[in-house]
Amino acid sequence: MLLNYHFFDYKYNIEGFTSDFFSTTHIVYIVIAFLSVIAIGILCRKADHKKITYFLRGLAVFVTILEASKIIWESYYDITTGRGFNAGGILPFYSCSLLIYCLWIGAWGKGKAREVALTWLATIGLCCGAIGTVYLNGLNWYPFWTYGAWDSILFTTI
């Protein structure tokens, strides 16, 4: 089967795409994601605080790079197609962007701020990640095997 899009294509350049939402690939991803969360929880239940801190620091850097690459990718297409820079649509000012800020506070913060950030990551972050894994909104605009979809997949899985 020949695809009419490339991995880094932007949603306005993908013609004839309807949706991969709740496709077979999406359902397999949901099952793998939930099994992975359970397995990671079991494997990490005896990890000490130092290892968790290193993990959170690495994750904070990774998620920040992921978000910056999405902003650059989306800005490139917005500017080159004449739409201009879409500051309100792509900058991390949404509630789902709280993951980025809480990771940095949880990884490098001290005292009460760190406790609150870690509590948020453990409860609200897990619930929102589960909802985002099932209702992977990016699949409404991007095919599963594209950068736009995988950015959403990585962000919700993390």
Q: Quickly give the structural class.
A: mainly alpha
Number of domains: 1
Q: How much helix is in the residues?
A: 55-70%
Low-confidence stretches: none
Q: How many strand segments?
A: 0
Distance between the termini: 31 Å
How would the global form be characterised?
globular
Gyration radius over CA:
17 Å
Order of helices and strands: HHHHHHH
User: Can you count the helices?
Assistant: 7
Largest sheet composition: none
Mean pLDDT across all amino acids = 88
Q: Strand share of the residues? A: under 5%
Features of the shown structure:
single chain; 158 residues; mainly alpha; 64% helix
Summary of the model, kept short:
The protein is built from seven helices and no strands.
Can you put this structure into words, describing what you see?
This protein is an all-alpha fold and 158 residues long. It has one domain. The chain is 64% helix and 0% strand. The chain has seven helices and no strands. Helix 2 packs antiparallel against helix 4 (98-108), helix 4 (98-108) crosses helix 5 (111-122) and helix 6 packs antiparallel against helix 7 (147-157). The longest helix has 32 residues, at 49-80. The protein is globular, with a radius of gyration of 17 Å. The two termini are 31 Å apart.
SSE order and pairing:
Blueprint: H1 24-43, H2 49-80, H3 87-90, H4 98-108, H5 111-122, H6 124-134, H7 147-157
